[in-house]
Write a structure and sequence with these properties.
Layout lengths: L1 E5 L4 H12 L4 E5 L5 H10 L2 E4 L11 H19 L6 E6 L7 H20 L3 E6 L1 E3 L10 H10 L12 E6 H13 L22 E4 H11 L2 H4 L8 H12 L12 E4 L2 E8 L5 E7 L4 E6 L5 E7 L1 E8 L5 E7 L5 E4 L3 E7 L5 E7 L11 E2 L3
């Protein structure tokens, strides 16, 4: 298929076009405001469907709402009919189309024009009223408060919060792009007009309901995580999507950060990640012949993974004499569980430094280290 996408350089357009191309869903015909009417008419003749994302939401003059929203929509539909190619159309409208301001009125006119086109040509149309959409490649001070908060927090700049209790409905860009793709893939099998209540297509993807305060606090917490070595609670879908968005706003020359390496003659031990509910990850480097460990834990349990070098992990149950040996090597990745109640050690048996990735079920707590010295 050839899909005409209007607003091709915008936030939603760039995400959709990239997804269509990289997933090989369709060939894209990109329309931007700087192209003339002949270019648009040519695309209308060629296309097998349209995703109409172009519009105006922050013009210099109020009358530009009418021109950029209803006017452009009318031109697009007129050109499709002039080209005798009344293909299916997906349109991104706004929840503000239910309002009475100039922007909402212009979006409602665009909705009505598209539904009239669908009825007139018995052609499938999808009119979506979208809430605030957020995600990668959005513009701060333009697309959403999420983009603005992420941009400034990533640069250690203050953010402004007028009303923490302000209710928000948020839609993640990857979720709506996936929905658009599913609609595009249905063009060949579902072509006739379908009357939806109010002419609006119900969203199938998740709309997150939250508050401005939660969004601001969550994004601000991301800015502190390099120092605490923590990661957010990714089991919460909204938090996970906000974190992905935040990372996309990091300045390209500030994508790395240093870790504190605790070094001595034996090698080094470096904490990498601390999580809430998923434990801690560290990297341990042992010099040749060095023995580390020689302790046991009440409740703390660990997993060891040697990724470089050659070593021996030894266990003995506290109070007993039998010793159990596990030989490990970076040439054959193998996880060794470190159970509670077993004193254990790890020995570098090779001629080079041995590197071990270590996971513990809980971050280290200096007030209760749960570590008791006893040689294996």
């Amino acid at each position: 298929m050839k899909i005409l996408v209007t607003g091709a350089r915008g936030f939603m357009g760039s995400n959709l076009i990239t997804a269509l191309r990289y997933r090989s869903v369709a060939e894209v015909l990109s329309y931007t405001h700087d192209l003339d009417d002949d270019a648009l008419l040519s695309m209308c003749r060629q296309c097998d469907g349209v995703v109409h994302l172009a519009g105006v939401n922050r013009p210099e003059k109020e009358e530009d709402f009418e021109k950029g929203n209803a006017g452009l929509t009318e031109k697009l539909l007129t050109f499709l009919e002039k080209a005798e190619n009344p293909v299916p159309v997906i349109c991104s409208s706004s929840t503000r189309a239910a309002g009475n301001d100039a922007y909402g009125i212009s979006k409602k006119k665009a909705e009505d024009l598209i539904n009239a086109y669908g009825r007139r040509n018995d052609t499938r149309v999808f009119v979506y009223r979208l809430p605030n959409v957020f995600g990668k490649w959005s513009r701060p001070e333009y697309n959403s408060a999420v983009a603005t908060f992420c941009y400034h927090t990533a640069r250690k700049e203050p953010i402004r919060i007028d009303d923490r209790s302000h209710a928000m409905k948020l839609l993640y860009i990857d979720d709506i792009v996936q929905e658009f793709i599913e609609d595009i893939e249905s063009f060949e099998t579902e072509k006739t007009y379908r009357e939806n209540e109010g002419g609006i297509e119900p969203l199938r993807c998740v709309v997150h309901e939250t508050t401005l305060g939660f969004v601001a606090d969550t994004i601000l917490s991301f800015g502190k995580m390099r120092e605490s070595l923590s990661v957010p609670d990714l089991s919460d879908p909204l938090t996970s999507k906000l974190y992905s968005t935040y990372l996309s706003f990091l300045p390209p020359n500030e994508l790395s950060y240093d870790l504190k390496m605790n070094c001595d003659e034996r090698g080094s031990f470096t904490e990498f990640l601390r999580t809430r509910g998923a434990g801690q990850v560290s990297v341990n480097i042992s010099r040749p012949g060095i023995v580390k460990g020689q302790h046991w834990h009440d409740s703390k349990n660990e997993k060891f993974l040697v990724v470089k070098g050659k070593g021996l992990i030894r266990f003995r149950k506290v109070g007993e004499e039998d010793i159990f040996d596990y030989h490990v090597t970076g040439e054959k990745l193998q996880v060794v569980e470190i159970p509670t109640g077993y004193t254990h050690c790890i020995i570098n048996e090779g001629a080079e430094d041995m590197v071990t990735v270590m996971w513990a079920n809980e971050p280290f707590n200096p007030d209760y280290p749960d570590t008791f010295h006893e040689e294996v």
